[in-house]
Q: What sequence folds into this?
């Protein structure tokens, strides 16, 4: 195979640029032609494509976002849309595609794979919700962004004897809340995977205040049923403790990627192109322990996520 493409799709994630750089530079090093496709599957359907060279990816390893831009394409969800995308790939002679994105983006890649395109999926999402990979690119940076915000919130909460509900992203996955909550010493972590006893939560907060705690932080993942405002109202009414809400929102999606995300992205981008060079069948690139792995794309997307209850229990013990 000597002509390939790279695209980023779905929500952006810090480290996408580092992965694009790794894919482009590996391809050029191996004398392959590589096209950058703009705005994900939307741009692919429209033929928004340009050839990349060594300097197309200069000075981007440290940048958040994606130089290729991204989109969530409605048209690509239809059979006509997918067929149009395949026609464009054939027109450009692109035999293999590196897809950077989350679950939906990799599923889009699997549709192209069914139509004969070799697709290498790289897990890029702050949510960390892909079962086949221990971690996804962007997750570590997002957790660090939340931690930094929690530090600031802790200062002001202490000054005012307040409780704060910090709402974090993750869609239906509680991993950002879980890791940031443990690392940031949150009093409580609410995730969609586990039902929380709110009365118990309030009792714990009151006990903490009695023992002299000057602030409390509750990290709530966005996928939890009770909203942050409802939760704050409930806590304030039940404990008498003034409770504020901070929604961190898109701040978690931007920012310079952490060293961990850059290293992961560099290794995965490289692996994806090496596999295409070998003309391998479509694969999902992932991380298991400290190893970069690849496995059948469809099989990877069929796996079910396991919830790490031990981390939640640990956070609970350490935040008494
Ligand atoms: O998948 C990444 C993510 O940031 C989720 O955490 C969040 O629920 C969603 O994307 C937001 O999507 P959008 O960018 O379309 O608002």
A:
């Amino acid at each position: 195979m000597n002509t390939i493409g790279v695209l980023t799709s779905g929500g952006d994630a810090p480290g996408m640029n580092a992965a694009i750089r790794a894919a482009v530079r590996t391809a050029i090093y191996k004398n392959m032609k590589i096209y950058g496709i703009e705005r994900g599957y939307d741009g692919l359907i429209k033929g928004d494509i340009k050839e990349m060279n060594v300097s197309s990816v200069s000075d981007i390893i440290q940048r958040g976002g994606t130089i290729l831009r991204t989109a969530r394409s409605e048209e690509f969800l239809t059979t006509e849309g997918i067929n149009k995308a395949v026609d464009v790939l054939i027109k450009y002679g692109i035999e293999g595609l590196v897809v950077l994105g989350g679950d939906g983006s990799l599923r889009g890649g699997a549709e192209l794979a069914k139509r004969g395109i070799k697709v290498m999926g790289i897990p890029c999402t702050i949510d960390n919700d892909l079962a086949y990979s221990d971690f996804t690119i962007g997750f570590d940076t997002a957790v660090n962004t939340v931690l930094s915000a929690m530090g600031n919130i802790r200062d002001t909460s202490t000054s005012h004897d307040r409780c704060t509900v910090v709402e974090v992203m993750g869609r239906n996955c509680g991993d950002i809340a879980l890791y940031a909550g443990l690392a940031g010493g949150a009093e409580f972590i609410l995730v969609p995977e586990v039902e929380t006893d709110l009365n118990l939560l309030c009792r714990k907060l009151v006990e903490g205040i009695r023992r002299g705690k000057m602030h409390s932080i509750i990290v709530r993942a966005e996928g939890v049923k009770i909203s942050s405002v409802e939760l704050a109202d409930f806590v304030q009414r039940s404990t008498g403790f003034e409770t504020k809400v901070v929604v961190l929102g898109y701040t978690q999606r931007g920012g310079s990627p952490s060293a961990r995300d850059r290293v992961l992205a560099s290794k995965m981008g490289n692996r994806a192109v090496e596999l295409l060079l070998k003309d391998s069948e479509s694969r999902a690139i992932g991380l298991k322990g400290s190893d970069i792995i690849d496995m059948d794309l469809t099989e990877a997307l069929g796996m079910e996520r396991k919830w790490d209850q031990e981390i939640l229990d640990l956070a609970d013990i350490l935040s008494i």
